[in-house]
Amino acid sequence: MSNKLIEKLYHHHVLTKEELVALISGLEEEGKKLLFHYSLQTKIRYYGKKIYMRGLIEFSNYCKQDCLYCGLRSSNKKIERYRLSAEEILQCCKEGYRLGYRTFVLQSGEDFWYEEDQLIYIVEKIKEIYEDVAVTLSIGERSKELYQQLFKVGADRFLLRHETASKTLYEKLHPTMSFESRRATLKMLREIGYQIGAGFMVGLPDQTAEDLAEDLFFLKELNPDMIGIGPFIPHGETPLRNAVAGSLEDTLVMVALARLMVPEALLPATTALGTLDLKGREKAILAGANVVMPNLSPTKVRPLYELYENKICIDDEPAHCRDCIEKRITSTGMEVDLSRGDSFQFEKNKLQ
């Protein structure tokens, strides 16, 4: 039964909700092999063997929100907080550009210490110095006016995981946030003109196959340029410290299903997968992922950006990090691409 559903999904990029729940719930080893084969073939059909490398800069671990699973949550009083100055961020970009990166991903907690003028200055300066780079922001929910100003000065993309498409689960895990606001913000970002990224976690406490199916249907409807899917990994300074982590296999299945349901999207092989398994990122690439994000943050602050525990690569210098991940990519038979690496649908829309 699973194989028939996988064949249908491969050829038509959609199933009914009942079929998708049945597939998620009943997938066995033989079915996984077929699923991963088709998801990789779909990735190659749209993107060839290219794996895009982005330079990640985690510039602040302050966060006003109090999400139950996140080590950066505002209630965590044991974390040592830090903020990078505009000059430090620009220095990270300088090193990244020297290493060949042409996309910089600026990520932080929801830190309103960085006011409108500061954020605009940083983005404007990056685009002024490096005319051929893309700037991706991942800074959480801010005002429409700020989003518009950042887009106006050159920000290209915005990552904002929807986290979970289940309203009940979302509200349980995000006591300081709004389910409706999250969805509305994603649509707002798209309307402004950003290439948008959404995504979710796999293995959250009380998450069901129905919830995961809803995540995939939400992504199908939203049709984002990027989809970030990672496993839930508990952190010792959160209320979910004793919860069971999500599994590598379940996460790879969701990556593959996302590839088949939203075939034009960019899909990262997340660092969290490498934390669960030394070959986790390679396995994700072979399941249809086509983006990796080596860290350009100063090594002194990397251990402090701890969304989850036991994060890998925190001591690697940027040059070593790039070299290491490049070798991992080529070991899968894929090819490194350091260009901007815009999404298939973005490139297609430019031609229309």
UniProtKB/TrEMBL annotation:
Alphabetical list of CDD domains matching this protein: Radical_SAM
Gene Ontology BP, a term: water-soluble vitamin biosynthetic process
Gene Ontology molecular function terms on file: 4 iron, 4 sulfur cluster binding; biotin synthase activity; metal ion binding
Superkingdom of the organism of origin: Bacteria
EC number(s) stated in the UniProt entry for this protein: 2.8.1.6
Cofactor(s) named in the record: [4Fe-4S] cluster; [2Fe-2S] cluster
Residues binding [4Fe-4S] cluster: C63, C67, C70
EC supergroup of this enzyme: transferase
Keyword tags: 4Fe-4S, Iron, Iron-sulfur, Metal-binding, S-adenosyl-L-methionine, Transferase
Keyword S-adenosyl-L-methionine appears in the UniProt entry: yes
Pfam family, one: Radical_SAM
Binding sites annotated in the UniProt record for (3R)-3-methyl-D-ornithine: S138
UniProt: S-adenosyl-L-methionine binding residues: E163, R182
Cofactor binding note of this UniProt entry: Binds 1 [4Fe-4S] cluster. The cluster is coordinated with 3 cysteines and an exchangeable S-adenosyl-L-methionine.
Full protein name: Biotin synthase BioB
